[in-house]
Amino acid sequence: MLWGVASMLLAIGLWALVVLTIEPPSYVLPAPWDVILRAWKDWALILSQGTSTVGEIVAGLVLSAVIAVPFGVFIVAIPVVDKLVYPILIAFNSIPKVALAPLFVVWFGYGIFPRVLITVSIAFFPVLVSTVTGLKSVDPDILRLARSMRAQSRQVFLRVRLPNALPSAFAGLKVATSLAVIGAIIGEFVASDRGWGYMLVQASGSLDTPLMFAVVICLAVVASLLFYAVDVAERSVISWHASHRQ
Amino acid sequence: MALPAAGRASRDWNPAFISLEQIGKTFATDDGEVTAIEAATLSIRQGETVALIGPSGCGKSTLLMLMAGLLSPTTGHLTIEGQAVTSPRKDLAVVFQRDLLFDWKTVLGNVLSPFELRGEPRSLHVQRARELLAHVGLQGFEDRRPYELSGGMRQRVALCRALIQDPSILLLDEPFAALDALTREQMQLDLQRLSAEQPRTTVLVTHDIVEAVFMSDVVVVMTARPSRIRRTIVIDLPRPRTVHTRNLPGFGDHVAEIHRLFTELGVIHG
To answer: How close is the nearest chain B Cα to the Cα of A81, in Å?
Structure first.
């Protein structure tokens, strides 16, 4: 924590140093104090627009996890689904999801729904792929052991495959956290009249660079907090995993 | 219902419990077929401890997996109590070389996992699980996770997980191979003690001559490629085997005999 604060102060110090030595125009690179003053002036606006963005990020992330994990279970549990559906999903994943955003506007207009949809379409796949990988990568000797115990396949799935997949699923969720932030911003670039993404587009139009900096910093803070929240959840759920042993 | 004392005295009349007749096993690999076992014939009597000993790659583990019903033979007949083995039997438990504990379960949870995986209630067996753990010196470790234990302790948990199923056949696939010499000796004594309570048929795969002689009533010497059973040696040392067993003259004789056999076979050469 102390180191975190120190590295933060170092970054801001360097930034201030660059501004003081080069003295760039404020619309190119504003000084840290310019950004703080700008944010201070419009803090109510930033906050109110932020609720919509943060809402999309959280909704997108939660929906991704809630859909992707059971879907991964479904794919692995039923071999036919694995063979039939998984290739389609992989193909769909290779589409740059940003390209879908204008399409979602055509289909669903400018509401919160298309923006959450874009977020989910981006954040969904890492969770799905890592869940599927985790479910499939059980030590074959453990499966042998289970057979020697005459284990029921349902129990093997619930009590061996599922816990075995948790570390991998959490790794996917962590990747999804940063992707959800990207998704929400893209959604607001393309399909919105509110939110931090929309603010960025507006501020860019009027060369209000200090405001853009303020919004970007807010986004970084939100993304970090979210990542931290997932990390805390991970620690409590898979405390037995090598990554969390003390 | 006293089981006959295992060993030479009972061998003459005690019928085969596990019977292997001309067992062969080949595996298909990318480079063609590989013969793991060729025409193995062996009979194991009820209550005996039999060690399969041989160099790496002699198919001894494969033989064990066949008895476990985890593999099926390519040729020959394998029966237990006169019944062909097609899948793992109810009264059988296997301990593998790696402990294969579930990282996410506590020590107690691991010992009770066979019941859980069969969809049976665990509650009936909690007391027994605690007793078994205490028996192998793991009292107080019930709520620990496997990663907090040493290799020897982990393998003891794996042993308890097998024994709680109260198997009449215990199959051990080099269970002590990964342990240091002192821990291994302690585990051998522990297993002797636990087996003395309740006689069971035990098949032990090992590449340790001393371990084979110490644990067994019969040692089956196998050779590598082509893998065959070379000789069956009856170990007529008194039971229970204790720390003093190793000092008996007969013990050294048997070890020397097997060692000489491996030298003749070219497994060990100067």
So the answer is: 25
CA distance B151 to B143: 17
Interface size, chain A vs chain B, as Cβ–Cβ contacts under 8 Å:
63
Question: Do A159 and B90 make contact, defined as CB atoms within 8 angstroms?
Answer: no
Q: What is the CATH number of the domain that holds A92?
A: 1.10.3720.10
- Whether the Cβ atoms of residue B87 and residue B72 lie closer than 8 Å to each other: no
Q: How far apart are CA B98 and CA B79, in angstroms?
A: 27
Task: Give B103's contacts in chain A (Cβ within 8 Å).
Answer: 240-241
B175 neighbourhood in chain A, CB within 8 Å: none
- pLDDT for B97-106, tens place per residue? 999 999 999 9
Interface contact A238-B70, CB threshold 8 A: no
Q: What is the pLDDT of residues B34-67, one digit of tens each?
A: 888 888 899 999 999 999 999 887 889 999 999 9
**Minimal CA–CA distance to B211: which of B50, B71, B5, B92?**
B50
Structural domains of chain A, count: 1
Residue A204 touches chain B, beta carbons under 8 Å: no
**How many angstroms separate the CA atoms of A184 and A52, rounded?**
9
**CA angle, A244 as apex, A243 and A246 as ends, to 5°?**
120
Domain enclosing residue A170, as ranges: 35-240
Q: Would residue A23 count as lying in a domain?
A: no
pLDDT tens digits for range A83-122:
998 888 888 888 888 888 889 989 998 888 999 999 999 9
**Is the CB of residue A150 less than 8 Å away from at least one CB of chain B?**
yes
Contacts of B92 in chain A (CB under 8 A): 148
Residues from B contacting A (CB-CB < 8 Å) are 65, 68-70, 87-88, 90, 92-94, 96, 98, 100, 102-104, 113-114, 116-119, 145, 147, 165
Question: Is residue A9 included in any domain, yes or no?
Answer: no
A13 domain residue, yes or no: no
